[in-house]
Input
Amino acid sequence: MPKTKELCEATKAAILALLAIGMSERQVAKKLKVSKTAIHYTKKKQAQYGTTKLLAGRGRKRLSTPRDDRALIRSCVSNLCQTTRDLKNEWALSRNVTCSARTVRNRLLEAGLKLNRPRKEPFINERQREARLLFAGDHKDWTVDDWAKVLFSDESSFQLMPTPANLLFRRKPGEAYKQDCLAPTVKHGGGSVMIWGCFSLGGTGQVQLCEGRMNQVMYRATLENSLLPSAAKLFPASNDWIFQQDNTPCHTARSIKAWMENQNIQTMSWPAQSPDLNPIENLWKIIKRKMENHKPKNKANLFELVQQEWAAVTAEQCQKLVESMPRRMAAVIRNNGYVIKY
Output
């Protein structure tokens, strides 16, 4: 027999009130449009228990005790990669709780432990963690005005035929291989280009196409052709600016360091494995999302479209990204040097 729907307390109160003024169960059922059985059961429950509310102990008894649940949660937290089946088997052995995988999932959900795919982030070893923590500590008191003097830079790769991230389709069963429901892929994204760019709180600098493998010779040419004009544009009234770059070998080559010194360019000491601290990474993501609306014909057209979207970046977007730097430093310190959510 299927389980009947419980009446709300307001309806139960109305039933008792109508019965109290002398109406019959049949009359009350007709007036409130509920079954006569429900009227009779409500009257009987009130007389027997003095209440119409749900009684404690109704329903199936819970398979596990609070102590069992805590043991399951401890087991899960000790190794977050365990499968539901492994946790179920371990629970049965350690606490003699025999249940389904669904019950295990429900207990974990009650504790806020939802199954998620791990985010892919650069691996940070102990030395790198300490360097990140030291960097954040050295810059924890920097204001937005201090960060406004920094010219952030980096390279990024753009593919001719990228597969959009988190692509979802709505389709009917059996349509998985329908042409409209496929996401075609090609090797290496159909070809790609490497692009260097820079920006500061005041706006974007130049972007430059890096043809071939980036080495110290190409990087110096990039700095001469794009960094210097960008700095002149973004810091026209002062030479008091700091250049930020990561620790790619071609960036830290002796010839590059010598060129920087000859140009009187002050560089920022940057911790390794720290793209989450560089706001230009967020800017590249903005550009790549916009590029999903384009279908470049070739690599030359791809670079032209990137230039077009780069030029469309607003000063407000740049300002917001640089204004996040004090929060990033605080987040690194809170997270003890590990990757942060940026």
Remarks:
- Residues 216-234 form the longest helix (19 residues).
